[in-house]
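Following up on my earlier message about NDP. Here are the inputs again, as you asked, copied directly from the submission form:
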Amino acid sequence: MSMKKALITGVTGQDGAYLAELLLGKGYEVHGIKRRASSFNTDRIDHLYQDPHVDNQRFVLHYGDLTDSSNLIRIIQQVQPDEIYNLAAMSHVAVSFEMPEYTANADGLGTLRLLEAIRMLGLEKKTRFYQASTSELYGLVQETPQRESTPFYPRSPYAVAKLYAYWITVNYREAYGLHASNGILFNHESPVRGETFVTRKITRALARIALGLQDCVYLGNLSAQRDWGHARDYVEAMWRMLQQPRGDDYVIATGQQHSVREFIALAAAELGLTLAFEGQGVDEVARVVAVSGTQSRCQVGEVIVRVDPRYFRPTEVETLLGDASKAREQLGWQATTSLADLVREMMAADYSAAQRDELVKSAGYPAYDAHE
Ligand code: NDP
Ligand code: GDR
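Thanks, got it. Here's what our run produced:
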């Protein structure tokens, strides 16, 4: 049997990196679409790089963009993939309020462009399609926990664009018999999560605060509740969906919910810091009330988290909690990483990154310090 070929859009992102690694491990030939940028943007997949000058290259990158149909058609025609995983998106909910039209184009129409390319190239029977749908579709939640049958109520330009992508995927499945599936994935994180999503923003900032590289971190709505899993577990679910006899739609979640405040407390505890939350709304702060161990140089009494309304969203998704029973029953999938283990892994990775920055700074070089 010949090697299966997969095409991943968004291969340079968090999920793209984990999925590429999973598929390479399963013996696939993996093709990824990356965007042209003015500097290197392949940090998350550099460990998978294969020299194009050697024979039997199984990991191949193509320049492309979801807003460019002709480019997508050409890549799909060239690769003739057995499976396409559409992970590319402008994926930041808050930023989608700043760039609604671009978000609709990339996240909504981008999905249509891929589906149309499959159809135009006559690959309906060959190519299976995965769409990265999202728990953001539930938005203002109509039922708890959320399952496949829960009505959608999107609350951001991002979620509205993803709603179009969800339904166009269903429509192409029904209209043209495509093997097309929506994974309705709840939030999933990892040490390579984008630095401006709340979990990574917290672990990265707390590590830097512990080592004296930064004084405090500014966040938005601390009461938001999310169902947080590990990206490594979630990409396995994507693959399983495309191995089913037919395309379908599945919720992927842990079934556990925590607030941003709880996530902060758990992350701080990894550094030996006990926090107390004081005040309300924009005046809320987190203060260090006890310090144990040697990982942190923080003092009791220091305020290390403050609220900045800049991070509030015009319409917020306050609470999400998924019911992944269908995935458990039909895909044999369930989340295997607890939130405690996820936080530990993220905190450890950001702590060692901060230690490297500290070393650079102590040697007299300017320390790396990117900002949102
Ligand atoms: P990331 O933001 O980490 O990655 C997004 C990827 O899409 C990056 O490779 C990015 O490229 C690429 N991209 C963005 N715009 C375009 C474009 N116009 N054309 C081509 N590529 C583009 O997201 P995640 O890995 O976290 O998420 C993967 C997908 O799953 C996204 O569609 C997201 O919306 C969705 N999702 C994510 C969840 C999560 O909790 N992580 C939950 C549910 C759904 P570059 O590196 O150049 O920026
Ligand atoms: P989300 O993730 O919007 O759920 O979208 P994010 O981590 O950005 O926000 C989660 C919750 O935390 C609150 N919050 C903050 N968020 C950010 N980014 N920065 C802050 O400073 C901050 N303070 C509080 C937010 O208001 C929100 O309630 C993610 C993305 O990966 C989407 O692509 C994906 O579809 C969904 O998860 C499921």
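One observation from looking it over: The mean pLDDT is 97. Hope that helps, and feel free to reply on this thread.
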